[in-house]
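Researcher: Good morning. I'm working through a list of sequences from a screen, and I'd like to move beyond sequence-only analysis. For each chain I'm collecting a predicted structure so we can compare shapes side by side. This is the next one on the list. No need for commentary yet; just the structure.
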Amino acid sequence: METLALPHTVKIYECDRKKQLRLHCLFNLFQDAADMHADVLGVGYEYCLSRGIGWVGANYHLKINRLPLWQEKIVLTTWASGKTVVSGIRDFKAETENGELLFFASSQWALISLGTLRPVAVSKNLPDYILHNERMIDTTFPAIPLPENEDSAVSFGVRYDDIDINDHVNNAVYPLWAAESVSHDFRKTHEIAEMEIAFKKPAVFDDDITVFTQTDRLTTTHRIASPDKSKDFSRVRIHWKKE
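Model: Good morning. C-alpha cells for this chain:
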C-alpha cells in the first residue's frame, strides 16, 4: 500500500478557543498515521523494537492553509516519499471531503540503534519498502539558525504528561512550546501559516526548559534549550499570518 488515507472527524477536545484543531493534536495525527503506515509497510514500531532499532523524528516542515473546525470531517493521507542513508522521508496532506487542501507537511525520521542512540543504515537494517514519489514540500530540511537576537525567554519544567512511551518528551510538544512562547495578544490576532522544526536532543522529565525567541515581524525563531543552553532540544521557525 503506497499511501494510507485516514478519515477523521475533529473532536471537541481536539479544539482550541477558536474551535480549530489544536496544534499538538495536528502533530499527534501525523504521528498516528505515520505509525500505522509504517506497520503496513512492515517497518513499524514492533518490527523495529524486535531488532533494537527505532524511528525518531528529525525534521518537520508544515504549511497550513487553514485548520479544520470542530465536527469537520477530514482525510489525512500519508506515504513514505524517500530515503537517505540513515533516514526515511514521509509526507502528509489533510483534505476536506470535497478535496480542499487544509494543511500538508514533509518530515524526516532518523533510524537509530536503541542501544547506542546513534544513526544506523536504513538499507542494512530494514526490508525494502514501497515509496510513493510525491513530495508535498520540496525541501532538504536546511538547518534552522539560532536566534540572532533573543527578544524574549520563557522558562518552565517538563510536565509528566509530556512524556511518551519512549520515556522522553513527545515530538508533538515542541511545536506547542514554540507557539506558546509568543504573547497571548499576538496569538489572538495571528495564525500559523508555516512551521519548520528540527529536533536536536530529546528532553526528559527532569529537564528544565527555556524557549529563547527572536521576533522579526511575522517570523519567529525559537531555540528550545536548557536555561544555561548546555542542552539544545529543538529549533523552530514559524511564519505567521494575520487573521
